[in-house]
Design a protein that fits this description.
alpha+beta; 21% strand
């Protein structure tokens, strides 16, 4: 399967194009870092450069489970990111994909970048035989939830966690 969104390059307005989605690569480092810092800020998560360096290392390591895409605008400027990975589904005896992070720069929202990134993750998952793509979002992330409600089905599951410091 191609890592480029199947909708890549399709017109969405008079002069706008749906962003092109590509695997994150070394040339995207600076822009990715700004996007990921913006993502952390959006969720009010304290994140230091060393943390971003760790995630970047994962994304550049073909043996690591976490992979990433960036959405590029018509000038090849990264305007969004998605991080995803496989996860086992023991009850279904299948493998699914988990979309860990999805973020679009505020000035690029409404450009189709979020849809293009999700489409690219779905396409990657189909190519690997994943049976589902799953993600979570904050209850108060109304703008994203509005988009997600159009794109996917909301599940009945509630998420719990126990911190293990």
């Amino acid at each position: 399967m191609s890592a480029t969104s199947s909708t890549s390059g399709a017109a969405i307005g008079a002069n706008a194009m749906i962003p092109r989605v590509v695997p994150v690569s070394p040339e995207h480092r600076d822009a990715w870092e700004k996007l990921y810092a913006g993502y952390a800020e959006f969720y009010r998560v304290t994140q230091i450069p060393e943390m971003r360096a760790t995630v970047w290392g994962w994304l550049q390591d073909p043996e690591h489970e976490v992979e990433g895409f960036v959405a590029l605008d018509q000038n090849d400027r990264p305007i969004g990111l998605a991080h995803f990975r496989a996860f086992a589904r023991p009850l279904a005896a299948t493998t699914g994909g988990f979309l860990d992070d999805l973020f679009v720069a505020p000035d690029a929202r409404g450009s189709g970048a979020a849809q293009a990134l999700i489409d690219a993750v779905v396409e990657a998952g189909r190519g690997r035989g994943w049976t589902v793509i799953r993600w979570i979002t904050a209850d108060d992330n109304y703008r994203a939830r509005s988009a997600y409600d159009r794109i996917a089905g909301r599940t009945k599951w509630i998420t719990y966690e126990i911190k293990t410091p």
